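Students often ask why we bother encoding 3D structure as a string. The short answer is that it lets us treat folding as translation between two languages. Here is a chain of 192 residues written in the first language.
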Amino acid sequence: MARAFTAFCRAVRALRGTSGWPRAAIRVELYGTMLGWREGEPRYLQEIAESEGTGALVVEEPRRVTYRHSLELLLEADGVLVLGVDNEGYMPSKLYTYALSGKPLLGIFLSGSVASNALRESPGLGHVMTFDEGSDTKRESAQALLAFLGEVSIRTRFERRTLLLNHLAPAMAHRHAQLFDACIRTEQAGEL
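And here it is in the second language, the structure alphabet:
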């Protein structure tokens, strides 16, 4: 997540104080960022924020949080920041849950990754920034960040249920049933 968070901090530093920057105070709280973390160990993302000049805006609690507590934190948040990793196949397990919350969402992913493509193909789910350093990408990322922060600052809520129908339990159960039916038909045809 270091590259994703570094890109976020650099964009915040570059845009803070510009005309599009929200007037409301910004605070970024990061939870469950390091599996097995113990008190006294480094808080790596907090260190990145400090080194990028955005440390005053960031609080990191690396300790694992339960699924239930993650949902509580989600409900209390004004917006959701999802940090990606250096893997094109990475897809955050809670991305659609976060989107279903109706909160403004900003994902920061490797360009061309499954997760960045998912947000680009369904723009109503949230905004996407990428790790790329190209000037076009920096401009797009800056626009995504400002749009996200603007939505967060006025506590915008989105109704995304129709965008998420294919990712909800009924649609997923239907796909499982289709797979099982195909397996049974194949077995009955003697093809297994």
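Translate back mentally: The longest strand covers residues 105-109. Keep this in mind for the problem set.
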